[in-house]
Design goal:
Keywords: Hydrolase, Metal-binding, Metalloprotease, Protease, Secreted, Zinc. This protein is an alpha+beta fold and about 350 residues long. The chain is about 45% helix and about 10% strand. The protein has a domain of about 170 residues: Elastase, domain 1, CATH 3.10.170.10. It contains 10 helices and 10 strands. It is globular and about 55 Å long. About 5% of the residues have low confidence.
Length: about 350
């Protein structure tokens, strides 16, 4: 399964920016041309479920970062392995640190040993392609482009981007979800959720203090925007004369019916994203401890169907909250209220 973080509707807007942004426009066109092969590979590969919940398997962190050297060939040349010192290449060292941060987050917060719960080795490839405008989960590793320099910086600059892509590996092993319609939007949302939680864990930020942004720092200063997506306020991450305005809805009232982007997986993920934010904000404190635990339990213990809908996932989170905290508990009530607020009925 291969999942890219930059939505095709963003790349399409950039591709139209020639001759104003010639480098970015060319880079976006090339990235767009590769999305269909990536998506075809995703459909053919499907997902493979491994251990679902936490595990007692003794495992150690195993990282390996490779350099594609500007070619679109994987895995590239290994340049930094576990325990090796920094290389001085920002992309290599950011990827290495990001892999470790996500591993530590899963282990400390949920007792999970890596993506599969059994010590899965974490591999990354950097410097993929020439001015490549994306990052993606390839099915066994995360891959990062360097960006075009006009719209996007290098994709390793944001921990939430690294964690989001690793999140696709977590979903792949825990509860594979079809990359289509609401199931695909849930897939994207879960990766956003665990991406921002990993960043909050590293920074020791409480829900009230966090930015709730995915991809902060990814845009160059020329872009009028703060990130690719906002869980706190979907639809407000950017408003730029090239990119347009962030189209994500926050509630089902704005749900987008479309055949593009696999039924709007990147657009409609704003709805479950916002539900998570509302639950976390209502509970307060560190979001990974209660709200995150409930979402993690729903993903790993509730036997989600591959074609899971928003209401089905909402029901799974309520069931997970009831199982862990009890019927009528403040945690359960917060989850129920969050889904009702985004007009998803449980």
């Amino acid at each position: 399964m291969k999942c890219a973080i930059v939505p095709p509707y963003v790349l399409a807007r950039i591709a139209e920016a020639h001759p104003r942004l010639p480098v970015a426009a060319d880079a976006a066109r090339r990235a767009l041309s590769e999305l269909e092969p990536l998506n075809r590979a995703r459909r053919e590969a499907g997902g493979s479920a491994g251990p679902r919940g936490g595990t007692a398997v003794a495992a150690t962190l195993r990282r390996r970062v490779s350099d594609a050297g500007g070619r679109e060939e994987l895995p590239g040349v290994p340049v930094r392995g576990e325990g090796h010192p920094p290389t001085g290449d920002p992309a290599v060292d950011e990827a290495y640190d990001g892999l470790g941060a996500f591993y530590s987050f899963l282990e400390a917060a949920y007792g999970r040993s890596s993506l599969d719960g059994a010590g899965f080795g974490l591999d990354a490839t950097v410097h993929y392609g020439r001015e490549y405008d994306n990052a993606f989960w390839e099915g066994s590793r995360v891959v990062f482009g360097d960006g075009d320099g006009e719209v996007f910086n290098r994709f390793t600059v944001s921990l939430t981007v690294i964690a989001h892509e690793l999140g696709h590996g977590l979903v792949q092993f825990a509860s594979p979800l079809d990359y289509q319609d609401q199931a695909g939007a849930l897939n994207e949302s879960l990766c956003d959720v665990f991406g921002v939680l990993a960043e909050q864990y590293v920074r020791r930020q409480a829900a009230d203090d966090a930015a709730w942004l995915v991809g902060a720092g990814l845009f160059t200063p020329e872009v009028s925007g703060t990130a690719l997506r906002s869980l706190k306020a979907p639809g407000t991450a950017y408003d730029d004369d090239v990119l347009g305005r962030d189209p994500q809805p926050a509630t089902m009232a704005g749900y987008v019916q479309t055949s593009s982007d696999h039924g709007g997986v990147h657009i409609n993920s704003g709805i479950p994203n916002h539900a998570f934010y509302l639950a976390a904000a209502r509970l307060g404190g560190f979001a990974w401890e209660r709200a995150g635990q409930i979402w993690y339990d729903a993903l790993t213990e509730q036997q989600l169907p591959r074609d899971c809908t928003f209401p089905a996932f909402a029901a799974a989170t309520v069931a997970a909250a009831e199982k862990r905290y009890g019927v009528g508990a403040v945690e359960t009530s917060a989850v129920q209220a969050a889904w009702e607020a985004v007009n998803v009925m449980v």
